[in-house]
């Protein structure tokens, strides 16, 4: 796996966030536990091939969640947000 310099990662992340700002219009889209999603669906070969892009998307998601909700969404085994105690409905 290729290692990237921090400056490169930050540059790529900032560009991704700038390019995708219009995605913030759909607030509900970002209401999910990204870590749980990746743990569940990120195990195939395609995800391994594009792991850098997927990781940047994850960082973008976390930043968007902080912006939209004031914190990153983390859920327990019952899909309850560990900070707000609200149930997070998972979507595919």
What does this structure look like?
The chain is mainly alpha-helical and 92 residues long. The chain has one domain (26-92). Helix content is 50%, strand content 0%. It has four helices and no strands. The chain has helices at residues 6-19, 34-41, 45-49, 51-69. The chain is globular and about 40 Å long. The protein starts with 5 loop residues before the first helix and ends in a 23-residue tail after the last helix.
In short:
With 92 residues, the protein is an all-alpha fold. Helix content is 50%, strand content 0%. The radius of gyration is 14 Å and the shape is globular.
Tags for this model:
92 residues, 4 helices, mainly alpha, globular
Residues in helices, as a percent range: 40-55%
How many helices? The count is 4
Q: Write the H/E string, N to C.
A: HHHH
Average pLDDT reading = 91
Task: Please tell me what the overall shape is.
Answer: globular
Instruction: Indicate the structural class.
Output: mainly alpha
Number of strands: 0
Task: Kindly provide the radius of gyration, computed on alpha-carbon positions and rounded to a whole number of angstroms.
Answer: 14 Å
Which ranges are low-confidence, i.e. pLDDT below 50, for 5 or more consecutive residues? Answer: none
Largest β sheet strand count, sense and barrel closure: none
End-to-end separation in angstroms reads 28 Å
Q: Give the percentage of residues in beta strands.
A: under 5%
Tally of structural domains: 1
């Amino acid at each position: 796996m290729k290692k990237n310099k921090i400056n490169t990662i930050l540059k790529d992340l900032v560009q991704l966030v700038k390019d995708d700002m219009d995605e913030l219009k759909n607030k509900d889209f970002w209401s999910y536990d990204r870590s749980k999603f990746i743990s569940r669906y990120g195990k195939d070969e395609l995800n391994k091939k594009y792991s850098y892009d997927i990781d940047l998307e994850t960082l973008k998601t976390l930043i968007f969640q902080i912006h939209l909700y004031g914190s990153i969404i983390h859920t327990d085994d019952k899909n309850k947000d560990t900070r707000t105690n609200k149930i997070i409905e998972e979507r595919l």
